[in-house]
Design goal:
The protein is mostly helical. The protein has one domain. It contains two helices and no strands. Helix 1 packs across helix 2.
Length: about 130
Protein backbone atom coordinates (compact mmCIF):
# COMPACT_ATOMS: atom_id res chain seq x y z
CA UNK A 1 0.00 0.00 0.00
CA UNK A 2 1.42 3.19 -1.08
CA UNK A 3 0.50 6.40 0.51
CA UNK A 4 1.38 9.60 -0.99
CA UNK A 5 2.19 12.20 1.47
CA UNK A 6 2.78 15.64 0.28
CA UNK A 7 4.64 17.85 2.59
CA UNK A 8 4.21 21.55 2.36
CA UNK A 9 6.75 23.80 3.81
CA UNK A 10 5.91 25.01 7.33
CA UNK A 11 5.70 28.62 6.19
CA UNK A 12 2.92 27.82 3.69
CA UNK A 13 0.77 26.04 6.30
CA UNK A 14 1.16 28.93 8.73
CA UNK A 15 0.38 31.57 6.12
CA UNK A 16 -2.65 29.59 5.03
CA UNK A 17 -3.86 29.27 8.64
CA UNK A 18 -3.34 32.99 9.24
CA UNK A 19 -5.24 33.84 6.05
CA UNK A 20 -8.06 31.54 7.07
CA UNK A 21 -8.17 33.09 10.59
CA UNK A 22 -8.23 36.58 9.08
CA UNK A 23 -11.09 35.61 6.75
CA UNK A 24 -13.00 34.13 9.69
CA UNK A 25 -12.41 37.27 11.76
CA UNK A 26 -13.55 39.51 8.89
CA UNK A 27 -16.64 37.36 8.44
CA UNK A 28 -17.42 37.60 12.17
CA UNK A 29 -16.95 41.39 12.09
CA UNK A 30 -19.28 41.73 9.08
CA UNK A 31 -21.86 39.52 10.77
CA UNK A 32 -21.65 41.58 13.97
CA UNK A 33 -21.98 44.80 11.98
CA UNK A 34 -25.05 43.44 10.19
CA UNK A 35 -26.66 42.43 13.50
CA UNK A 36 -25.84 45.84 15.05
CA UNK A 37 -27.19 47.70 11.99
CA UNK A 38 -30.36 45.65 12.10
CA UNK A 39 -30.79 46.35 15.82
CA UNK A 40 -30.25 50.08 15.26
CA UNK A 41 -32.75 50.07 12.40
CA UNK A 42 -35.37 48.38 14.61
CA UNK A 43 -34.66 50.85 17.42
CA UNK A 44 -34.95 53.77 15.01
CA UNK A 45 -38.28 52.43 13.76
CA UNK A 46 -39.55 52.12 17.34
CA UNK A 47 -38.45 55.67 18.16
CA UNK A 48 -40.17 56.97 15.03
CA UNK A 49 -43.31 55.05 15.92
CA UNK A 50 -43.29 56.38 19.49
CA UNK A 51 -42.81 59.93 18.20
CA UNK A 52 -45.64 59.49 15.71
CA UNK A 53 -47.91 58.33 18.52
CA UNK A 54 -46.78 61.04 20.96
CA UNK A 55 -47.31 64.02 18.66
CA UNK A 56 -51.12 63.65 18.38
CA UNK A 57 -51.36 63.05 22.14
CA UNK A 58 -49.33 66.18 22.88
CA UNK A 59 -51.46 68.19 20.44
CA UNK A 60 -54.66 66.91 22.03
CA UNK A 61 -53.42 67.71 25.55
CA UNK A 62 -52.35 71.16 24.40
CA UNK A 63 -55.79 71.80 22.92
CA UNK A 64 -57.48 70.62 26.10
CA UNK A 65 -55.25 72.87 28.22
CA UNK A 66 -56.11 75.84 26.00
CA UNK A 67 -59.82 75.06 26.32
CA UNK A 68 -59.57 74.86 30.13
CA UNK A 69 -57.66 78.15 30.20
CA UNK A 70 -60.32 79.81 28.04
CA UNK A 71 -63.13 78.48 30.23
CA UNK A 72 -61.33 79.66 33.36
CA UNK A 73 -60.81 83.13 31.92
CA UNK A 74 -64.47 83.30 30.92
CA UNK A 75 -65.54 82.21 34.42
CA UNK A 76 -63.34 84.88 36.01
CA UNK A 77 -64.78 87.54 33.70
CA UNK A 78 -68.33 86.41 34.47
CA UNK A 79 -67.74 86.39 38.23
CA UNK A 80 -66.06 89.80 38.05
CA UNK A 81 -69.02 91.21 36.13
CA UNK A 82 -71.47 89.76 38.68
CA UNK A 83 -69.51 91.24 41.60
CA UNK A 84 -69.36 94.61 39.86
CA UNK A 85 -73.15 94.52 39.32
CA UNK A 86 -73.76 93.63 42.98
CA UNK A 87 -71.47 96.45 44.15
CA UNK A 88 -73.28 98.92 41.89
CA UNK A 89 -76.66 97.79 43.25
CA UNK A 90 -75.42 98.09 46.84
CA UNK A 91 -74.10 101.58 46.09
CA UNK A 92 -77.40 102.61 44.50
CA UNK A 93 -79.35 101.19 47.44
CA UNK A 94 -77.12 103.02 49.94
CA UNK A 95 -77.34 106.33 48.06
CA UNK A 96 -81.12 105.91 47.78
CA UNK A 97 -81.42 105.23 51.54
CA UNK A 98 -79.30 108.29 52.35
CA UNK A 99 -81.48 110.45 50.10
CA UNK A 100 -84.71 109.05 51.58
CA UNK A 101 -83.60 109.01 55.24
CA UNK A 102 -80.74 111.50 55.69
CA UNK A 103 -81.14 111.86 59.46
CA UNK A 104 -81.24 108.11 60.08
CA UNK A 105 -78.23 107.66 57.78
CA UNK A 106 -76.22 110.25 59.76
CA UNK A 107 -77.19 108.65 63.08
CA UNK A 108 -76.24 105.18 61.80
CA UNK A 109 -72.92 106.50 60.48
CA UNK A 110 -72.20 108.22 63.81
CA UNK A 111 -73.05 105.05 65.75
CA UNK A 112 -70.80 102.93 63.54
CA UNK A 113 -67.99 105.50 63.88
CA UNK A 114 -68.34 105.51 67.66
CA UNK A 115 -68.30 101.70 67.78
CA UNK A 116 -65.17 101.59 65.63
CA UNK A 117 -63.43 104.17 67.83
CA UNK A 118 -64.33 102.14 70.93
CA UNK A 119 -62.83 99.00 69.35
CA UNK A 120 -59.64 100.84 68.35
CA UNK A 121 -59.32 102.32 71.84
CA UNK A 122 -59.85 98.91 73.46
CA UNK A 123 -57.33 97.27 71.13
CA UNK A 124 -54.70 99.93 71.86
CA UNK A 125 -55.19 99.53 75.63
CA UNK A 126 -54.84 95.75 75.34
CA UNK A 127 -51.66 96.05 73.28
CA UNK A 128 -50.09 98.40 75.91
CA UNK A 129 -50.75 95.89 78.72
Amino acid sequence: METTTSYKPLGQDTASAVDQAADTANSAIRSTQNVANSAFDRLSDKVDSARDQAVPLINRLSSQAEAVARKSADAVRETSAQLRDKAMKAQETTVGYIKDEPVKAMLIAAAIGAALMALVSLASRLSRD
